[in-house]
Structure formats: C-alpha cells, structure tokens
Write the structure tokens for this entry.
Amino acid sequence: MRGYYFPYHDILPELVVENEEKIVFLVMDGLGGLGSEPGKPTELELASTPNLDRLAQRSSCGLIDPVAPGISPGSGPAHLALFGYDPVQYEIGRGVLSVFGARCFDPDPIMKPGDVAARMNFATLGADGTIKDRRAGRLSEQKGKELCRLLDDGIERIDGVEITVMYEKEYRAAVLFRGEGLSGALADTDPTIVDMPPIDPKPKDGLDPETLARAERTAAVVKQFVEQAVEILKGHEPANFVLLRGFDEYQPLPSFAELYRLSACAIATYPMYRGLARLLGMKVVDCGQSVADEISALEANWGEFDFFYVHIKKTDSAGEDGNADAKVKVIEEVDSFIPRILELDPSVLVVTGDHSTPATLKAHSWHPLPVLVHSRYARTGGAAAFNETECAKGVLGRLPSVCLMPIALANALRLKRYGA
Amino acid sequence: MRGYYFPYHDILPELVVENEEKIVFLVMDGLGGLGSEPGKPTELELASTPNLDRLAQRSSCGLIDPVAPGISPGSGPAHLALFGYDPVQYEIGRGVLSVFGARCFDPDPIMKPGDVAARMNFATLGADGTIKDRRAGRLSEQKGKELCRLLDDGIERIDGVEITVMYEKEYRAAVLFRGEGLSGALADTDPTIVDMPPIDPKPKDGLDPETLARAERTAAVVKQFVEQAVEILKGHEPANFVLLRGFDEYQPLPSFAELYRLSACAIATYPMYRGLARLLGMKVVDCGQSVADEISALEANWGEFDFFYVHIKKTDSAGEDGNADAKVKVIEEVDSFIPRILELDPSVLVVTGDHSTPATLKAHSWHPLPVLVHSRYARTGGAAAFNETECAKGVLGRLPSVCLMPIALANALRLKRYGA
C-alpha cells in the first residue's frame, strides 16, 4: 500500500534529536471552506482574522491535502495524516477510537492487541421488531451513564470473552471485547434508518477462512451480548435496545515518543479526538469546553510537554450545519487567542485544520486546506493573509498533510540531516 | 512498479456513488507549449481565447504532469494518466491500441486476454533486400483497404493461430493473432530507416524462459505471416512487403464503469484515441472530422452518458509540425465552442491536454500543461487567463495528471468520504 507518501517513518527515528524547542499544532476542525458560489469568499476569507493574517505574513503558508487530491477524508485519516501517519497504511475503526476516547485519561494501557471494540447506541425497539429511535430519545447524560453502568456490571464475560461497557456521551457508548481468537471484521448491526429491524451480528463479506472463523466466534459473542443487554434494559424504555457499529480490532501504532521523541499533550473537547491522541501516545489533559478553556489548558501545561495538539471542534460543527456565519464566528474567536499562544513563545506554531468542511456542502470535502508554519527558521512570502486564496500563493506550495510533522520537527531543529 | 501515485484505484470503487451529474473532459492534444525563445509567449498565450480566459477566472486552474516531472510521455500513457490510470502500472502497446481503434465501433469484446496485436505498415522492399519506402508510397485509402482485405482473406490460420488483418489508415493496419501460448514480447521488424533490411521476427531480449518459449512460438507464426503476405502482395508494387511493430499482449484494464461507475462517451476523430477510449470501456460515438462536428456529437449524445471525453487532435499535429500559427488557430477555434459546451450545463468541465507539444520542439515534451476544472464547487483564484503562466499561479497548484479524475468525481459529488 505504501507509495504515495514519502516513507518518513522509515527514516525519522534515526534523525530525531531531543531539545527544548516546543511545537504547537492549533487545529481548527474542518477549517477549509468554499464560497457560497464560485468567486465568493470562503468562511475564512469572510472572517476578520487580524492576528492570523499578521502571522501568515511572517510564516510559511501553503495548502495541504489530508489523503490525496479529490479525496474527502473522515476525521480519523485526516488527523493521522496531520500527525505524520500515512492514513492509507493505518486504518483505525471508530470502535477503537471510541474506547480510547472514553478511557483517554486512564494512565494504563487501554487496549491490548487482538481486543475488539465497537461503538454502541442505546435505541428504541418497537413491538413490531423494528427500530423506532436510533438514539432512544437522546438520553440524558445521567441516564446514559446509569445504563452503561448497569450493562457493564451485568455482563462480565461471555464464552470466555471479557466485556466492558463505557459511557461516551448521552446515548452513545463503547464496548470492549477482550479474549482469544476475536476479530473486528464484523458488519454494523445498526440499520441506520428507522422502521427497519436491527441487523444480526455477522462477519463482513469476503473474509479469508481464518479471519472468518474468528469473526464468526465474535459475532456469536456479540449476539449474546445484545440479548443479555435487552434483558437488563427491561423497564428502561425508551432505551430498550443496543445497536453496534464501527467494529475494529486493535493494533498498536508507533507512538509520538517512539517516532518523534516528543512528549505530547492533547487539548481537545471531544472524545474522538482525545481518543486518537491517546492512541498515538499523547497525554490527554483535562480542559473545559470553550476555546478560552483550551488556551488556558495550554498555558497551564506549557512547562510539561514538547508538543501540544490543540483541537477546536466548532469550526467543523458549524460547517456541517451549513452555517457559514457560525463558522466565521468560531474562526474569529480562535484568532483572538493567537496573541496568548504567541506569548508562550513556541518554537514552532502550526495553524491549520484536519480537512475542509465548507458550509456550502454541509460535509467534509476534498478541498485542500490552508496551513501556516510559524518559526524562526520558516521562509516567508507569498501569502498576505491566512486564507485559502492567499495560502495557495504561499511559499510552502501544495503538500500532502503527512509532510507537516517533519516540517515542524525540522523547524524545531529536532531533525539531523539524512545521509552523509 | 507502483509508487509515485496515490493508489486511487484501491479505494475509489468503495467511495464512488452514482448520481445525475455530468462530467466533460475537453482534451486538446499536445496543448502545452513553449515560447519561441525563453520569455516569449507560448502558443496558448499567443492565441486569443476570451471564452477560456473568462472560464479560467471562475475555475480552479493549475498545471499537471502526465507521468512525472521531466518525462515526455507518449499519447497512450498521457491519456491513461488523464483518465486516472497509473501510466507506469498500465502499459499498453501500440498494437493493442491499433486493434481497438480499428474495431472501436464493434459492440462485442474486441480482444481476449492472451491475444497478441501489432501495428503493420505496407512497405516497399528493394531487389537488394533492403526497405526502400516504409510507407509503400503512402497508399491511397482505397488501396490500403483492398490490400488489408486480401491479406485478411488469404491468411486465416498459421500453426493453430487465428489471424485477422484490419485496415487502419492509408498504409497502416493492425494485425491480431489469437491462439494458445502466444506472447507480445517481440521486437519490431521495422528497421525504422530505409536502405536497411527488415528485421526477422524475434523475441525481445532478457525474457524469462517461460515467456521466451511463447515469444519464440509467436515469432515463428509472425515469420510465416510475413512470408505469406509477401506472396499475396505480388503484383501490388510498391506495396510488396509488411513491417510489424508495437507487438503487445492484451490484458484487460478495469473499465470506467467498474472503477468510477460512469457511463462514458468518447468523441474523437483519430483511431488511436478511439481505441484507447474503447479499451477503457467508453462508448465511441460516430462524429465527423472537424471541431464543430465533435461539439455537435457532444450535444447529440448529451442525454445518454455521464462522462464525455472530447479529443481535439490538431493542436498536437500543428505542434509536431513546428507550426505555432496553426496551433494557435486550432486553440482559437476550440475557444469559440466553449459557450456551446457551457450551454449544456455540465456539472464539471475540465479543459486540458494530454501532454505538451511545443512547436519549438516539434515533439511531445516534458513540460507540465495547463488545466482548468470548472464546477459549482471548485475554488477559484490565482489565474487571470487560461495559459501556462497564469495556470502556474492557480489554486490547483501542480499535480500529477492522475489526480484529475478523482478531483472531477469529487466536484460532481460522486465520491463518499474516506474513513470514519
């Protein structure tokens, strides 16, 4: 599979050196945008961003492609690329991300190789055997936690497989299956639309015989899990059923410490991003829910780490809602905190997103997204402001996202030269 | 061999969705140019192209490399790249292209895996056993057809191998060899210069033993074919000999329908381009020889297909002739038809070439060539006109040609997102 990207991971561990230089990745989710029609300004171009614009003039600016030109990425692959991991080589299922998100503050190893994880929704099953509500009336946080605890206490082990149910958010949870001979190659049980019956747990199509045998064993365990869950949930209507999706088998990834010799800190408000960061060996630190809370967390942890990942979720949420105005406001809010970040005097400050989420499309898109790399050693020029049009003229040009981590390390003087 | 390009074909079939959006690729062969000396305008810059210039301002513009920077491609690899096929992974010999070109309107499968094809020239052999004219005095169309029929009727089968001779154009033809245990790994029999004897059919150098055995069997069949052809051509001087080149063994490629779920239509005036399109599963439709004829064919077939490949040959012919003025005129003619194409309201219109053919060089060249992608969702900016200099400033940047098909599919909202 390898090929499109330079095989950085093969050579970086030999080149990396440790020093005191600090790197910040400020990631506005879904930052890249689009005009309401061709020729109109993007959300970032509509936003008043005096601090980012000034910074862009003193930085290397460009455009990055998370996966490849034309490909609209999910948040998982887009973030992996941003952190320097080939997003085609490393595929991580939503179940694993959920478990890591739910347990992100746990200092112990969260999953073991061979563990299987899935996302779980509490749902409402009608008397006719079809799903009436895939979210069980959007449970309260309190009720969601209570039901997760009931299931976790009530179902300990099925056919030798240890089972853990973890609360994620409201009606959402994650389930961890630990035992010998499991496989993550299971189809979703969620029919994704209402008035359809739930799908029985079963292996995905096209598996080799060895994987199929493991997937069949896993499906049998999951089937029993669902049956037992239904028993336990009796009397907790509308949450009388569970739907599972995003099954995945855990395989460890090389960590930030192994690859880059960085002690990394993640500041993010959403479980999935926390989970991904934890999966790469970052320390997830507690913070509130606002941008101001996140910047305060950055300041509070400044002395403890080499690398800081600060994730801003609401740019993406606004884009997905088709609300260009809201996206503009979030960008402007982030802009207002740039002086406080610069006050910390990071050796390298990267400002970018993980992918584009234009309000016009109400979805992740394929458009490359703007990036600025600010450091004492960054070449400047080309971009008069921080936006898609100006970054297209910047000295960085158009690059795959996987190039950003090595560029950041280089600017922090953390890479030796390659070869004699 | 794979490596330089992102492995689009591995992931696209899972991402592609069908919808009603239509895509047009308007391909001016050899479009990219060069000034008569450094600093002088290219052919495209000399041409008056008000329609393309206006379109460029409302499109994503950039430069594309057909194979890789520095590599001057043949038309085959350049077109494969344009259609999203890795031109290093997929090598198609001229013989196979000729057979597909000659049979492009045939609804039945044209070649079977293992079939071998070659291009054939009628030539003049002197009494001294050397080639005196590699084109047999440029036969008339009528005479070429007559001789092809004579050979096709006169030589049916040699050593169990079924043989078909197909008229291509004037002195040019294609030969199809169908039978067990053949190989396309044969050297050309054409000495390429006059006053040299023709080369005996023989295997290429450096073959593995298994391929060598098949190539030796094939060479023996071809040798007998040439001997029988010489007998049949007696009395048809100056066409008293045949030269064969571009031997190739057919291996099917994944089709546009399989890869992209597109029903594709090819509008091209030259057999080779029709052949390539047919090879990729496009329907080749009949059209006249002028640009106006081709645009009329586009209009006539608009309702029937999702994807339209419109190929303009004469930009390349003029470049090969070193005639910059003629190339300018063809470009201006094409420009005048842009309003009629826009009138059809395609969801995505890509205007580009397959490679550069600067009149200054009288040959295909390595220079990247200009491209514009027009769609409701294309980002605009950077390029004030449609030419090499302005496209170098466009928001698309510089990309491999293989990225264009995915970008076009994305702009037509025909790709789901990749990963969670």
Remarks:
- Chain B is about 35% helix and 20% strand.
- Chain B touches chain A at residues 2-8, 10-11, 15, 57-59, 375-382, 393-399, 403, 405-410, 415-420 (CB under 8 Å).
